[in-house]
Design a protein that fits this description.
236 residues, mainly alpha, 3-stranded antiparallel β-sheet
């Protein structure tokens, strides 16, 4: 599959400001992966992306290098740069990391009330997408929910870590052949976690989240294994 990766990126040029840096380019591309615009196996065109963002080839190559280090991209000799295709073991490792970080964030929230406005918006976003039968949109809203959950820690370092982890997770979602079956059960569970935090029940929210992540890990890993083992499986 050859996807230039440039679609819509011209609109993101304003995010670069006057100091166009590789880190900012990498952040834009990371977000594009996390939002589902760049699927696993997509080839990234230096010419298309560099032109869309108005950055030099050297800057773009440094951004590619940063995302390769984050395991989001791979460089293939004489072929170019591609969005990475995960191994089954990667999915398990992503969920181990998520459980460690996300549960620790909830456990360390301190005293209520908690600033859950971002979480509430993500829950509403998912429910709206489900009513429209937009299961890719539900998947994106779920990513937003967990990003907002981690943001409750108020830690730029934790946010940065989880941006990469959640972008990797989206690579797994891409190859699952039934996104509704994968994501629909977690709409209700996101709402339950939000309700617990709104009620100031931090311990209850952590228990709900731990079970949620354990169940999701089992379902996603199994679905991903089926998809990558079956060469006829839809790519999502």
């Amino acid at each position: 599959m050859d996807v230039s990766g440039a679609g819509g990126l011209t609109d993101d040029r304003v995010l670069l400001g006057r100091t166009s840096t590789a880190e900012r380019v990498a952040d834009i591309l990371r977000t594009r992966i996390a939002e589902g615009y760049l699927p696993p196996g997509a080839r990234l065109s230096e010419e298309s992306i560099g032109g869309a963002l108005g950055v030099s080839r050297n800057t773009l190559r440094e951004a590619f290098r940063l995302l390769t280090h984050e395991r989001l991209l791979v460089h293939e000799l004489n072929r170019g740069v591609f969005v990475r295709v995960l191994a089954v073991g990667d999915v398990d490792d992503i969920y181990r990391t998520r459980r460690l970080v996300e549960c620790a964030v909830v456990r360390g929230l301190g005293q209520p009330p908690f600033a859950v406005e971002g979480l509430a918006a993500a829950v509403a976003e998912g429910e709206t997408a489900a009513r429209a039968d937009d299961w890719t949109g539900v998947s994106t809203a779920n990513i937003h929910f967990h990003r907002e959950l981690v943001a409750l820690a108020g830690s730029a370092r934790t946010d940065e870590l989880m941006r990469g982890v959640l972008a990797e997770l989206r690579l797994a979602f891409h190859v699952v052949d039934d996104p509704r079956a994968l994501h629909e059960p977690y709409l209700r569970r996101n709402r339950e976690i939000l309700d617990a935090l709104c009620a100031g029940e931090r311990a209850s929210a952590e228990r709900l989240l731990a079970r949620y992540l354990d169940d999701s890990r089992t379902r996603v890993a199994a679905a991903y294994a089926r998809a990558v083992d079956d060469p006829t499986a839809p790519a999502g």
